[in-house]
Design goal:
The chain is an alpha+beta fold and 362 residues long. The chain is built from eight helices and 20 strands. The two termini are 36 Å apart.
């Protein structure tokens, strides 16, 4: 195992800057997730670490060893790709053992290490089968077993679950988390799926346009997004953003949203710096809006447009003035389309953001 460090890494493809001055440190044994939309640079950064792309600037370290210019085979890494990339003409045993055979490892060692990897991935009963005789989830486990059998210092995973259906992804997420707890390898996991990121990562680095815009523990990202992009990208459904204007009276600011006045929590220290007439965005998660039958402090009128029963909860699409918002309520909440309701904001859960930059005011 080893720590990983990117120092001002830059990678350019023609006129496209795929990695723009990225600096990031990953601890020994940590499970780091690179999260972002397609084209944000997360796979490019992974490939720069693997040596599959040559960086145009900056340095890459694995442990205390600089690997910026080393060949992939000299970096002591293992990689799981988006496609299974298993050899169809080889058995599961031979697929897993392939890398060890290329290193001319002793036969007894190969058998022992393959058996251990197969046990960890619950493949012991399938070692004599061929990939065509396996399900998609089993083939993906073969690809993971082939990587971990190498006992590399670093394990890289590039969207390994994207080709699986929803139920298999759920099962594989649990298996990958259990596997990491057992092998404790330093792992970098690339995904655009924020549910995978929240469930798997010790920390998540959110990327946008080749840069890391926020890196933190999953629930810190969820509860305290650095900006509108992070709040809107993480969460299903994402955070609501309601525009308003600051009004200051007796040194106490409120956000005027339509006809409603929303006050910040008492612990919101930056409130003192808000200026009268300043445009503001109020970010709040759907589960932090509460339906009430009458106006109260920190409430706003809304009209229900759509009701979606989802078993554990109902998801409402509501219209607040000219804006559309999502509200999560309990499954027994009696509400129907075209109902007029009042939404109460939890002041502790509101994230105040600068309307011009989208940055959270801290």
């Amino acid at each position: 195992m080893a720590s990983i460090r990117f120092e001002s890494v830059r990678k350019v493809f023609g006129k496209v800057v795929a990695a723009d001055d990225v600096t990031l440190e990953i601890k020994d044994g940590e499970f780091m997730v690179l999260l972002g939309p397609s084209g944000c640079g997360k796979t490019t950064l992974l490939r720069c670490l693997a040596g599959l792309e040559r960086v145009d600037g900056g340095r890459v370290f694995i442990g205390e060893r600089e690997v910026t210019d080393l060949a992939p085979r000299d970096r002591k890494i293992a990689m799981v790709f988006q496609s299974y990339a298993v050899f169809p003409h080889l058995t599961v045993f031979d697929n897993i053992a392939f890398g060890l055979k290329m290193q001319d490892r002793p036969r007894d060692e190969i058998k022992r290490r393959v058996a251990e990897s197969a046990r960890l991935l619950e493949l012991a009963d399938f070692l004599e089968r061929y990939p065509a005789q396996l399900s998609g989830g089993q083939r993906q486990r073969v690809a993971v077993a082939r990587a971990i059998v190498m006992q590399a210092a670093v394990l890289l995973m590039d969207e390994p679950l994207s080709n699986l259906d929803a139920l298999l992804r759920l099962q594989m997420r649990a298996e990958l988390k259990r596997l990491h707890q057992e092998i404790k390898a330093t792992t970098i996991y690339v995904t655009h799926d924020q549910v995978e990121a929240l469930s798997l990562g010790d920390r998540i680095a959110v990327m946008q346009n080749g840069r890391i815009v926020q890196c933190d523990a999953p629930m810190q990202l969820y509860d305290f997004p650095a900006n509108k992009f992070v709040g809107g990208f993480i969460g299903t459904p994402p955070m609501n953003f309601l525009p308003g204007v600051v009004r200051v009276s007796d040194a106490k600011p409120v956000a005027v949203v339509g006809e409603a006045q929303i006050a910040p929590s008492a612990a919101f220290a930056p409130a003192l710096a808000l200026k009268n007439g300043q445009p503001i965005l109020l970010g709040i998660r759907p589960e932090n809006l509460v339906l009430t039958s009458s106006p109260q402090p920190n409430t706003i009128r809304a009209r229900v447009l759509v009701v979606e029963p989802l078993g554990s909860h109902k998801l409402l699409t509501v219209q607040v003035g000219a804006e559309i918002a999502k509200v999560s309520v309990t499954p027994d909440e009696r509400v129907a389309p075209n109902d007029d309701v009042w939404l109460r904001f939890d002041p502790e859960k509101i994230r105040w953001m600068d309307a011009s930059t989208g940055e959270t005011i801290r």
